[in-house]
Amino acid sequence: MTTASSLPVPQLADDLSTPSLTLWQLGWLRFRRHKMALFGGVVLILLFIFSFGGAFIYTEKYANFNDTSQRLLSPSAEHPFGTDSIGRDILARTIYGGQISLFIGFVAVLIETVLGILVGALAGFYGGAVDAILMRITEALLNIPTIFLLLVMAKFFGGKIPDIHIGERAFSGSVVVIVVIIGATSWMYLARIVRAEFLSWKEREFILAARATGTSNLEIIFYHILPNTFAPIIVSSTLSVANAILSESYISFLGLGVQEPTATWGNMLDKSAKYLDTSPWLWFFPGMLILLTTLGINFLGDGLRDALDPRSRTV
Amino acid sequence: MLQYIIKRLFQGIPLLIILSLALFLLMMNLGDPIATMGGRTLTRPEDRERLMRQLGLDKPIAVQYLYWLIGNTWTKIDSDGDGIPDKNGTRLGILRGDFGTSLVTRKPVTEMIGERIPNTLILMVASEIVTIVFALVLGIYSALRQYSTLDNILTALLFIGYSMPVFFISLMSMYIFAVLFKKWGWPYLPTVGMFDPQVGKTSAQVLWHMVLPVISLSVIYFAAYSRYIRSTMLEVLSQDYIRTAKSKGLPRRQVVYVHALKNAALPIVTVIGLDLPFLLGGAVVTERIFAWPGMGRLFLDHLSRADISVVMGILMLVATAVVIFQIITDIIYAWLDPRIRYN
Amino acid sequence: MAESLLQVTDLRTRFQTPEGTVHAVNGISFHINEGETVAVVGESGCGKSVSMMSLLRLIPTPPGEIYSGTAIYRDDDLLKKSEEEMEDVRGREISMIFQDPMTSLNPVLTVSRQLTESLREHLGLTQEQAEKRAVELLEQVGIPDPARRLGDYPHQFSGGMRQRVMIAMALSCTPSLLIADEPTTALDVTIQAQIVELVLRLRESLHMAIIWITHDLGVVAGMADRVIVMYAGYIVEEANVEDLYDSPSHPYTLALLAALPRVDRRRDQRLKSIPGAPPNLLVAPVGCPFVPRCEFVIEKCRRENPPLIQVGKNHSSACWVDVKTGAPR
Description:
The structure holds three protein chains of three kinds. By secondary structure, chain A is mainly α. Chain A contains twelve helices and two strands, in the order H-H-H-H-H-H-E-E-H-H-H-H-H-H. The interface between A and B is large, with 37 and 47 residues.
């Protein structure tokens, strides 16, 4: 067989050298390709800058400063988003409202993720009676439309926590309440996902091997199986932030959420319906901000889902 | 098939029991019925105690749950609050349809809910129909025209659609179709209530008043469903049996609407069926904005007044509806899928 | 002399993918005569399925594209017909059966429906007439108790039975050409034999031409009149079946035949496989695509892709080398 080859040889599938990338590197490359997700990420960063950076331009005192002689002014140079029904500047309020809304969104998801992982991991790993009980509880909670649960719990726990003072700022205690109840009523979806993942990973051989060498169950759960389930958890949690922000806005809109004077985008919309005829800016700006946030998160979540799907290796 | 139905029905029962327990416990912790009922007149501890005994609130939780479930007509209760049971109770328990009386209006809860349910149902059924029709049309269309510019635009719009909070849609549609239209002298849509009190409760009035609330309720859902239907159809259309159908020279219409759609229908029916009762959640917000006299509004009004009986009655109803719809959806799915039906 | 049924010239099909253009079919030409059985042989990915599906225009055309060639079927170019005209051809003149009977039948439609719809569409039969004919067809393909099984769903049949149903569907309108894309690959060996036997029997009674796509040279010997060997989207050898087995002329054919497990070989001899892997179709080849795996490579092979060269009666091979002697042609 002649082997002299100074001439180009047709490529063999074997010869194509693909750099060996880790799952994470692959994920980032594919994510970059998914421009919508990038767009979502950018939007979110901008919103963050708006809410937290804007605090350097407008003080909280200004946001709460009300002068009824200035009420219901349409957008102008002095008040770019107009003023509300008691004369407060809406732009400033949306800045501070954004801080609370975003804060609630992320912290609630944190709570929800921890709960969801705990329940899902235990149910999936131990199976049997543990699984049966945990799943019945999960299902029962899933069977009640969340908004009802939220409203009831908001009403009950509503006034129970006093205002919190951090530094110069004062926050209504209802913020804590809302964060906790949103977290406590949304973990079920994640629990189901985590449980399914654990059910499948539990049977893998490397787990058997870990057990054979005497690794404790706790270690197996948290060090061996859990890291493999990060991808669906990240996707689910990202998308949950949008849900949490929406939930907060729903309850606040209905008057049972975060209480005045602490602003959130949701409770700013509460009064706006009354003045619909005359002052559309009351609902337009907070509403748009919620929409942009949700959109950004949905884009981002979609992109993450595509990127982190380990099944397709094409870059 | 019949076996399957019976099996599913039986599976639903423990779930309902757990739900009722959970809700009951919630209810017990929710607020102070004494304060609500008695108002400011009950300041003396003796009066409070008396009311507690009359309402049976001094009994252990398990007994209270039992009374709630099956009533107390079969036992003696303390009707005058003096500590001595004297005559039989009058409650029938929820299993016999008695959800108690409202702490606010003193009317039976079942009556109050019964008044409002039809109004909510009208909204929900109409929204569901609008949602399904639009979602099917848009979903199938964009699946067939994958890659086209129109598909991309549609996908983007729908994405925005389901990212919107319900009230934003409501407020925006109210602003455009009621306020702006009115300002421009065009016929405009009403935004309050079910009908104009001056004209009376005619079908035309109700239909006219329904437009905005139905739009609010359906946009989010049909945006989400369109995407789902599109992806389901795309998946089905890539299956081998579609290739076979095409290779037989069947006209495209038949391939899509018979061969593909019948298969896509299975997961679509499941999603829609399971989601249906959750439409009630959206109804709560929508009914508030449009002052629609439905169950959602009832819930809100009485929740803010801590009227536990009404709140619990509605919660129980909603939860039961969810479980029942799950069972129905499962059964329909089993009936539609010949692989399950003929086994 | 048999009449020419199908004449394909320079067929080329490619797919646009995010990674680049996949050249699946690179200029193949062949003909099929009436009533003849031609086997198309090659490894997975060599383009045999894609080329036949291109004939029926079943390639999805956003990513796919038939960008060159003609396929003259009875005086008409299949590649130039409109979609409606193709719908008339498919199922009626040219039918196709596929590899996996599990997934190729629609699970939510009855067998009756799937059989009668072509009959009603192409032959205009009424529902009653179509159902009667469907029962006859099921009987012909060997389904026991056909009248009762008409109302059954695909999942109620076994794998072999499903393939028989597919065959019944394909033959329902008595096409002149049947394209069978690896119909027995997914079946048990014993069932394979039954299906092959069934098709041969039906071929006789229907005077039908068959293109039988397979990667199994063993099956070919018992049923084909001619054989076409494909590699990397090219036809590399074409011959009558006896000539192919008696004097294979292309190194690839040689390797395929050598790789067949044989009863008369010594048991301690290793099975011969073909070294290397099929080429990456994203890259248009320079020279002969088989070079990396070929035993007979000479300089010219790397420079020029050999066309089909006549090496015998009805026998051509795309190779610069005479494999019997090792010398260039």
